[in-house]
Write a structure and sequence with these properties.
Chain B: Its EC number is 1.3.5.1. Chain B: This is succinate dehydrogenase. The complex is a heterodimer of chains A (about 200) and B (about 260). By secondary structure, chain A is mainly α. Chain A contains seven helices and no strands. Chain A has one domain: Fumarate reductase/succinate dehydrogenase, transmembrane subunit (3 helical TM bundles of succinate and fumarate reductases), CATH 1.20.1300.10. Helix content of chain A is about 80%, strand content about 0%. In chain A, helix 1 crosses helix 7, helix 4 packs across helix 6 and helix 6 packs antiparallel against helix 7. Chain B is an alpha+beta fold and about 260 residues long. Chain B contains nine helices and seven strands, in the order αββαβββββααααααα. In chain B, the strands form two sheets. Chain B has a five-stranded mixed β-sheet. Chain B has a two-stranded antiparallel ribbon with strand order 6-7. Chain B starts with a helix and ends in a 7-residue tail after the last helix. The chains are: A mainly alpha (about 200), B alpha+beta (about 260). Chains A and B meet through helix 1, helix 3, helix 4 and helix 6 of A and helix 8 and helix 9 of B.
Chain lengths: ~200, ~260
């Protein structure tokens, strides 16, 4: 059921998806890419990120709290839609559906990913190249992570498009089309970066 | 000659049009499908076929049945009353020509709205929403207010396109976010806010209209599936209107918080 504050919650949801969550995802994928330069490069980068000053504050206020709001409110949004791609099989209607499907999948994927890395770290495990190589040596987990990364890059890229529309930046059909092209490019670039990093752990 | 015409008439009469109609006897009863096979006539539309069923309410099995109920008024696609789902897509039945439709032609009511009977739906939700957004230009005063500000001709031209909206409900039926789980007022209404805020006299209350679409069921519910602009029978640029209102509400939101006052301009 809708409430009076829904407008502001929706806008907050749209904003948080880009800043900080979108920025964090980009940063995360870029840092992961150190894996293509070898184990040592990855471990150095990962240690640098993990030992930033005020790391706990940064983690909670830049990642966990905004991410949790975006995730849980997003699930509510996803399940209030009544999808109809059969009736209208247009590009935008498919993007609308995929945004919701990837969003719900990402809640599951990220929960699992946090359990496997951050929670294991809290329990005393060492988060490093070996840990990821170990996880990804299982072909099922590799596939799960590839789908997870692609879902994230898609959700971010398409979310950038709807951010531009939701905040009234792109109004004309032409500007919305050009933003579409730019976000498709962002999706491709981020996907290559993300998947390359994943594959670096298995080779 | 007359013999030939008689043969031709017979041939035309032997050709039939098949319909499958989703029927519902009362607002709460269960819907069911009924088939009809009616004689073909040239240039038929869905309404003339429904009129034929009303004239001779016999279904495809040859059994006598109740006439199918539907709503209609202008018969020239300007009133919106005869909207229904035809072969899976919501549209007006007056401009749905039988020759252009795949048979059997499937007719369903627009279930986004409460069904009254058969193909008749209650679109009161939209009319109530029009009142909520103040979809009018206030010109009355306790004395003669005189002439309003002039409207630029080129602005009148694009707002005219928005004024073609007939509140038919097709865009609400097409929208994935208008359903019983949300209070979303729908794309048409957001475009009406743009129309009345664009008018120089209407703009004197623009903050009130924006405030309404920033509340329950307003513009926040839009998920940008952009089905509305595809579905609109009048070709209204609904998604451009929504994006324009997105910008207007963004500005209004900052004005409300950081501005010196909340009133118009």
């Amino acid at each position: 059921m809708s409430r009076e504050s829904d407008f502001y919650l929706r806008r907050l949801h749209s904003l948080l998806g880009v800043i900080p969550v979108g920025l964090f995802v980009t940063q995360h994928l870029v840092v992961n890419h150190f894996a293509t330069r070898g184990e040592e490069a990855f471990n150095t980068a990962s240690n640098f990120m993990g030992n930033l000053p005020f790391v706990l504050f940064l983690e909670w206020f830049i990642i966990y709290i905004p991410l949790m709001f975006h995730a849980f409110y997003g699930v509510y949004i996803a399940f209030t839609a009544k999808n109809n791609v059969k009736r209208y099989g247009t590009f935008r209607n498919w993007m609308f559906l995929l945004q919701r499907v990837t969003g719900v999948f990402l809640v599951i994927f990220i929960a699992w990913h946090i359990y496997e890395t951050r929670i294991q770290k809290a329990l005393g495990a060492e988060v490093d190249f070996d840990m990821m190589a170990n996880i990804l040596s299982n072909p099922f987990m590799l596939a799960f992570y590839i789908v997870g990364v692609l879902s994230a890059t898609f959700h971010l890229a398409n979310g950038l498009w709807s951010f531009a529309v939701t905040w009234g930046i792109a109004q004309s059909p032409n500007s919305q089309k050009i933003v579409s092209y730019i976000t498709i490019l962002a999706f491709l670039v981020l996907s290559v970066i993300g998947v390359q990093a994943l594959l670096a752990f298995v080779v | 000659m007359s013999e030939q015409t008689a043969v031709q008439e017979q041939q035309v009469a032997s050709k039939t049009v098949k319909f499958e109609i989703q029927r519902q006897d009362t607002p709460d009863s269960k819907p069911y499908w009924e088939s009809f096979s009616i004689p073909y006539r040239p240039n038929m539309n869905v309404i003339s076929a429904l009129m034929e069923i009303r004239r001779n309410p016999v279904n495809a099995d040859g059994k006598k049945t109740t006439p199918v109920n539907w709503d209609m008024n202008c018969l020239e696609e300007v009133c919106g009353a005869c909207s229904m789902v035809i072969n899976g897509r919501p549209r007006q039945s007056c401009t749905a020509l039988v020759d252009q439709l795949t048979q059997p032609i499937r007719l369903e009511p627009m279930r986004t709205f409460p069904v009254v009977r058969d193909l008749v739906v209650d679109r009161e939700f939209m009319f109530d929403s029009l009142k909520r957004i103040k979809a009018w230009i206030p010109i009355d005063g306790t004395y003669d207010l005189g002439e309003g500000p002039r409207m630029p001709e080129r602005k009148r031209q694009w707002t005219y396109e928005l004024s073609k909206c007939m509140t038919c409900g097709v865009c609400l039926e097409a929208c994935p976010n208008v359903n019983d789980k949300s209070n979303f007022i729908g794309p048409a209404l957001l475009s009406q806010v743009r129309l009345f805020n664009a008018h120089p006299t209407g703009a004197m209350n623009k903050d009130e209209r924006l405030q309404t679409i920033m509340s329950d069921g307003g513009i926040g519910e839009c998920g940008n599936s952009q089905n509305c602009v595809v579905a609109c029978p009048k070709g209204i640029p609904l998604t451009t209107s929504i994006a324009a209102m997105n910008r207007a509400t963004t500005v209004q939101m900052f004005k409300n918080f950081f501005g010196s006052d909340h009133m118009v301009d």
